[in-house]
Amino acid sequence: MMDPNTARSRASRRDRISVAAAIALGAGLLLGGGGWALIANGEECESGGASLVVKADPAIADAASSIAARQGFGGCAGVRIVPEASADTAAALAAGRGVPDVWIPDSELWLDLARSGASGRTVLGRSVSVAVSPLVFAFPPAASPGRKGRTWAGLLPGGTGGERPEAGNDLLIRMPDPARTATGMASLLALQDSIGNGHGFSTLKRFAGTLRTIEILEPGQDPAAVLNGPAQGASAQVAVVSEQQALRWGGTGRAGVPGTVYPSSGTPALDFPFTVTTADLGKQRRADEFLRAFRAPAGVTELNRRGLRSAVTGAGGVGRGGLSMPLPRIQAVASPGSASWVQQTWRSFKQEINVLALVDPSGPAGAAMTGAAWRGAIGPGGNRLDAMLVSLNRGLNLVGDDSEFGLWTTSGGQNSGARGTRRSHRPIVGIGELGSRTRMGTTHRLFLEKQLNAIRPQRGGGGAVYDSVVAAYEEMKRRYDADQLNVVLVLSAMGADGRPSAQFGKALARLRQQIDPARPVVFVVVAFGAGIDPGLKQMTGAVQGHSFQIKNPEGIEELFRNSDLMRVCTPPKC
User: Fold this and answer.
1) Could you give the angle at which helices 384-396 and 444-453 cross, rounded to 10 degrees?
2) Residues 498 and 417 occupy one common structural domain
3) Whole-prediction pTM value?
4) By CB neighbour count within 10 A (0-12 exposed, 13-18 middle, 19+ buried), where does 482 fall?
């Protein structure tokens, strides 16, 4: 028979443990910054039993932690909420690293990017939205958005639709980085959609012009503080933020809070897809219970407390900071491949250019360049080659020192290849950074200009341009830099009446063999004189490049200014 004192001692000790456990579990053992939320319902929690690892975007992580801490599962459940930026989780999943049991990014756009990797296609299962935060426009406190400032199309340079550009219509658009945030990605997709579908020249040119008006809000930068500052030369400014961010301003009670409006024609939204990534059936059932907790009244309350609407009710947009209760019309911008496209476009737009210029001084290059527009630039009696060199020099003046440039000509000398055969091209200046110093003590830019001005017309040899084009394309592929826009720029005076030489067919076939979607090269032909050579035009079509006829000295300056267009239009997209 047990000693009564021993029994009382053990009972007392057990009671103390139970009380301590109850206090700890009653508090949820919720450790901020990604701790474990352990919930018990009258049973002991065994370590490792049916626990979920949930990676959640920081915008919803706090709400997810609170929901996990207060949910009443039957038996025992452990839910670990790990706050992590959606961009980081998407990259990890695509590479097969750090796969959680459940992922809650702030937008389904990240699911598209995660699936771009073999691992992402394998592990990403069903998903359903648990919260909504529409994108809104924020304006400086003293500013009024006006009628046009209430639509995505109204943010475009030059007005909307068929409207003519207005003087002073230079709106500065501030948004988070599209390469790192869903707000930035969705904003660009909404702007592109407001211009119109397709990849035509005018559409892409306008989109490129729109990208030029965007200023990035850096991580940790308060849009409210930025909007209270100068617009950096623009006549007005607007920031694109989530409703959740705007509601935080309304709750501060401070002066100088930006005004906010919902885009009247509809707006994208962060949709927080609850995505199951585990193959464990027990964990999947636990994930389903966790999902139901988000949709329960208590879960909706936790979302609303943090400025998020429930995906079920649409509620939560309380009328603070100019925001209304009804959910605005949501504009769908996510589609297969859209996230990859917008990120590639944005990264390309921010790149410097890496150019190999191929000048063809043969054949018609020595013919007179007629037209009053050229007289002031090349003088009376100037030829087409003079026009090429003057134009290229003008274009170089528009390119930054961080860009790289090289120069070739079609061959007219006795240059020999590896087997003693005459080469179709002649390297004049190797590709180098324009601002770098050469061994002669000058800059690469000045050395390039000096060598450019020394090129003279050559008789005959017009057919060499086709083989030279292939060689230049191969060289640019060999020197391909993923952090730059890689361009082959061909300047030629061969007109539209020319007939492709006998070697053209073989050169065209070799060029087609060089196309590599993983190493895209932008191909541009600039024609001086009577139209564009048919052979060069076929080559342009084969690699989905661009061809232009330059009719005045300002033409190539416009082309270099439109290097923005080349940045948003890389093969094989257009």
Assistant:
1) 170
2) yes
3) 0.69
4) exposed
